[in-house]
Amino acid sequence: MSSGMPADGMAGILIKRMTGVGDSWIPLSDIDDFLVFVNNSKGELADKPGKRYFYYNTGFTLLGEVVERVSGVPYEDYIAENILRPLGMERSTFKREAFEADPDRMTAYRKEKDGSLTATVHPFHKLIYAPGGLLSPVTELTNYLKMNLGGGVYEGETIIDQSLLEKMHTGYTATGEGIFGTAKYCYGWAVLEDFLGHRMIRHSGSTGVSSAMLGFIPDLDIGVAFASNIGSFGPTIPHAAMALLMDRDPEKDIPYIAEELDLASLTGEYEAYEGTNMVNVVKKGALLYVEQDTKWSEMSVPLIPERREAGNRRFTILTGAGGKTLVEFEEASDGGMDLYMERWRLHRKRK
After folding, report:
1. What is the C-alpha to C-alpha distance for residues 351 and 348, in angstroms, rounded to an integer?
2. Which of 139, 153, 201, 259 has a 20 to 30 Å separation from 162 between CA atoms?
3. What's the average model confidence in pLDDT over 93-99?
4. 3-state secondary structure 284-311
């Protein structure tokens, strides 16, 4: 992820094509098409290797091709023989036919813009096997976690040399700063240096219609495997599960969870005196939005928080000509919630 090459959209093209979301004229039917696609992208190189982080699925597809050519064995068979079977991961597979033969297989769902879910097919394509094409039940993913926590050993059998595993768990490229300190990318893993006072090694991913996260804390010998049959879930559930394993309260001890719950508590329909003005406050991602749709105008503007913490009630709307408008929420004496915005005092409607 530090090659200097930015994302080229290869995996997204294939996922959209196979799940019926959209298509592209770009040919990506086999490895020859893929190599033409990659070689023609050389002009996109943004920096020297090691200088900048870009999540680059194509890099893993190339690594998968290297494994296949060096071993002389199809990538999916090599992984099954050397990793999955020794770990007892018998249901885990890259192959459509094996997945469809499983009587307890999941149904993949695509999340629509309005929040509804549509049943769809899971994307299977050899070009995205290595970047994240493995389907696995959480009961088997825990075996993989045990091997990582056990220094490369699972039930007495050495799967990988401990010195190599330690290199996989070492952060090499900074990916950003956050509430858990510096985040770095390892070899197929990422590391958070300060998750509630401990070093957590983790990774997550999505195929657009399924998603997963694995995480473990070596010095506490605990780990969490999380999987979903929709494409986007965020880290909240696995982070909360990890906190519970540490005897911590996620709603109090993980700042962003407390903030998200607090923001959600401010959403709803608000109206001014006698209904002379009405707005909706909705949560989108990490922000609140004020929305209004009338005969004369349509509005959807983000509320920029004064402080990123639970309990903040002061926000800003950015306006034209460099201006700002203060927006405040205040608990009413009757237990309701009031919204002060420009000239208006609006009361949240009771549910």
Report:
1. 9
2. 139
3. 97
4. ECCEEEEEEECCCCEEEEEEEECCCCCC
